[in-house]
Amino acid sequence: MRFQNEVAVITGGGRGIGAAIARKLFIEGCRIVVLDINETAAFECAQSIDPAGNRSLALSCDVSSKESVSQALSKIIEQYETVDILVNNAGITNDAMFHKMSLEQWQMVIDVNLTGTFLMTSAVVPYMREKKQGRIINISSTSAYGNIGQANYAATKAGMIGLTKTLAKELGRYSITVNAVEPGVIETDMLKSVPQSVRDGWLKMMPLARMGQAEDIANAVCFFASEEASFITGVELPVCGGFLII
């Protein structure tokens, strides 16, 4: 196993990519904290991974709310006393062509995807700085480079990349690494709403000619969180089957 009881906090961990990340880190030896705005999803995920409940904690958390984040962190510190790994995975979409996008649609996505990353990181960093050790992995997206109908989402994911690189420069002196993973087209519930014709078009453009799996992202996160990546920081890693080299 790569880890020795390190405490890993995964936002948006109730299902999909977040749940796969939680499972992978648990299997590799972490104690996991599954945070999700959907409390039921968080508990079901943690229970499926750790039925005995000895190395897991599930909490409801709205990452866009400073109060909710503070309450969750208090419970985490009460149980585990520290945080070693933070995975900022929580995210939403609210797509529309830009000329039809409302301020509400824009702000909703900004609040969860970007401000949520800021709030969670702000809450966790003091504990990492104190012990001069930590891993922060931000789940960005290949949409950061632009995607029709996703001006709000793309802006947040590009913002996460800028935040990743800035934090890597600021926190490196404390032996805290900060990296970003950029999922491409991944088989999740979110993808089910995409027409099959569009999915077929994506497959034709991908060198690896397959959709990604949540486990592909989890593997990348696990690497960045491990000691094997201790000299890597400020990096953005596309996990997209070659989609970005087209």
Task: Describe the overall structure.
45% of the residues lie in helices and 15% in strands. By secondary structure, the chain is an alpha/beta fold. It is globular.
Q: Quickly give the structural class.
A: alpha/beta
**Average residue-wise pLDDT:** 96
Count of β-strands? 7
**How helical, in percent, are the residues?**
40-55%
Map the helices and strands.
Blueprint: E1 7-11, H1 16-27, E2 31-36, H2 39-49, E3 56-60, H3 66-80, E4 85-88, H4 103-131, E5 134-139, H5 151-171, E6 176-183, H6 196-205, H7 214-225, E7 236-239
Output the keywords.
alpha/beta, 246 residues, 7-stranded parallel beta sheet
State the gist of this model.
With 246 residues, the protein is an alpha/beta fold. Helix content is 45%, strand content 15%. It starts with 6 loop residues before the first strand and ends in a 7-residue tail after the last strand.
